[in-house]
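RETRY 2/3 - previous attempt timed out on the joint model. Re-submitting the same 846-residue input unchanged.
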Amino acid sequence: MLSYLVTRLAQAVVVVFAMSVIVFVGVFAIGNPIDVMIDPGATQEIRQQMIEKYGFDQPLYVQYWTFLENVFQGDMGTSLVYNIPVIELVFSRFPATLELVLVAVGIAAVIGIPAGLWAGYRPESKSAKLIMALSVLGFSVPTFWIGMLLIMGFAVELGVLPSGGRGDVGSFLGISTSLATADGWSHIILPAINLSLFKMGLLIRLTRAGMVEAMSMDYVRFARAQGLPDNQIVFSHILRNISIPIVTVFGLELGSTLAFAVVTESVFTWPGVGKLIIDSIMQLDRPVMVSYLVLVVILFVFINLAVDLIYAWLDPRVRLKGGA
Amino acid sequence: MKNTLKCAVAAVALLVSAPTVFAADLVIGVRAGPDSIDPHWSTLGTQAEALHYVYDTLVDVDAKLQLKPGLALSWAAVADTTWEFKLREGVKFHDGTPFTAEDAKFSIDRIPHVTGPNPMTLYTKYVDRVEVIDDYTLHVHTNGIAPSLPNDFTRLFVIPSETGMDARNAEFNSGEKAVGTGPYTFVSWQPKGDLVLKRNDGYWAGETHWENVVRREIADDAARVAALRSGQVDMINYVPAADYLAMKNDSDVETFVGDSVYILNIAPNVKDVEPQPIKVNGVEVEGNPLQDIRVRKALDLAINREILVKIVLEGLGTPANQLMPKGFFGYSENIPAASYDIKQAKALLAEAGYPEGFEIDFTCTNNRVPGDSVVCEALAQMWSRLGLKVNAQALNGTVFFPADARGEYTMSMSAWGTITGEAAYTYGALTHSRNDELGFGNFNRTGYASEEFDKVFQQGTQTLDPEARRPLYERASEIAMEDRAQIPTITLQFVSAAKANLLSYEPRVDQEIRAYEISPAK
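RETRY 2/3 succeeded.
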């Protein structure tokens, strides 16, 4: 178990380094951030001063080395655009994304898994066919468009929910979150539904596929022959057996949604990190890009770790070995 | 029982109506907000727009970007290299301390210490030193003759000298140091979020109508429109052309169309060797065809600007015949309106030795201003009628500008805004030949160099008397346009919108929405 954790951490460190090198090389290849930001009226002298001030005149390896030195002193850098430490900047917006994603993933799981189970349990029924048809819509219709439809319907025409923003932020167990206020919930519900649709479609199809396959398995037949009631078979035997692919996909989706919920965040003006990272890329704000992507890597590593641990718990045959 | 029910209904009604703002409040949905509350951090237009609420500048500008008194009542050159500013008396900062010349001096001196990667030193580059004569008189000594100093000071925000040189962005963003003399006091701000402002009741220029103003950053065009339609915001800027057409027929919404400072200019590279080869029948041509003025004129004549405005931009623009909008300092009335004449264009091209046309790369921005990418495509089609094969490519500004700075484009198009309202800003950067010593031509990527233009323009920059300077800049405009140093196409118009019957608003040419200049609807 310990060697497993150590290997995992070592892998994470390698990925983090690779990521930071890619960002540095990428920004260097595109060009000088000063040329993107500077006012066109600035003289050559002023431009040169700025390039020197931020070290963009140095060779790439020197710039990267300076970055590494600072990181080892605990300094991830300061945003070029905002002049705020990037850690502070990213974490000032991360809670908003986290709460949105958790609600979205929650909705997807609470609706998607039971719907998928039902569709797999009675695959020939009309309701199952309807569920499957809707699930196709869930991941084939663009998020952006559904977002606009939700806004037009609920905010503009009916006027029952706000069209965007985070609403009032309350405090719950010392964490400031919009989930602690009614106004916050009214703001989060539309973007969360919007964000959940793709995941919901995915979970429905995945669960149904597992369910259909499991229903014809010997252990299910034996359980039936034993006279066990169907709901016990489904919930204590089948669900546990088909959980591994669901947990895997769920984990990956959780990570990628946290990292890149940008479309929904833009449409609903949600003050999360997605918008921040896109703008940072547009302005070549390298410190923000590097720190954010490093954070994403760490996040994925932790989610994968959690997924692996859940595997071991779901299926005792899975052993966690170093290098897994 | 009935009463209880009534109470309940009233309570519900109260709950439901709670989020709607009171009459004297204004929530504005803006495409972009500030990067910092430190007024000396960046020259970005959206930054200046937001900070104008909190801080005043020495010199202000009217809706057409022409100078008007701000914290300075008057200004005059008292010697070749000395400007005297007479300051307004009786002005107080939000914390109650009176405004004096020391504060203005401090604000000028602070800029080089704190400014960021989009540096404000641009506006203090002529300042040699600042001298306080008395509490309300300031002398600015310049290095060399600097006629445009008052224009530079239109973005010079004044903060109290007690702020100290050590204060940085964080202290301003938190509100601790966000103290100005402006019409609104700072309440709070989040990067990419809301800027919340409260009316400054003792404002020197008189009180404004709106008690609380929120500037909410909604970068997505469709989301901003939805926020207005759902009543979450009272007013928005930069309405997309498609929504503008729908809004015109909507009685709940009022639209405001205004000219902008932005002109889409084509920049033909006239260096001896063009960076992306120009070809005839797949063979690279000798020399650079764009060096021939007949070719540049042919390109110009082949552009149908009426079509660009009416069809491509949904009516949101006006044909441009020079690099600045009408009414700006240096705009020449003598330049004829741009005309469309494909026959003459073809004749000119044949005369220049390209009867069959040629193949050329054409690169544009696609996200800097509304309409840049569609105009780009339309231009390529118009030139193909001239017989050219145009490889048009519209790129993100993040990619375009660094490559443009490296001089990689043979012909490009981007928007240029004369944000100071006068010619020195535009010609000094765009059309003067590249001269690092004098600080001119930094944005001249085409290699255009005209001795005549440089001479007239430089003479203008050495002429303090505005009435003597104006004809020189007008002459410079005429030379640059006769040479087709750049080919202007369209002056863009932008649209803002508000709830119907809420306010009366005159769009400004710099696109700023200044709540303190907006009155309620009559």
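Chain A touches chain B through 52 residues (CB under 8 Å). Closing ticket.
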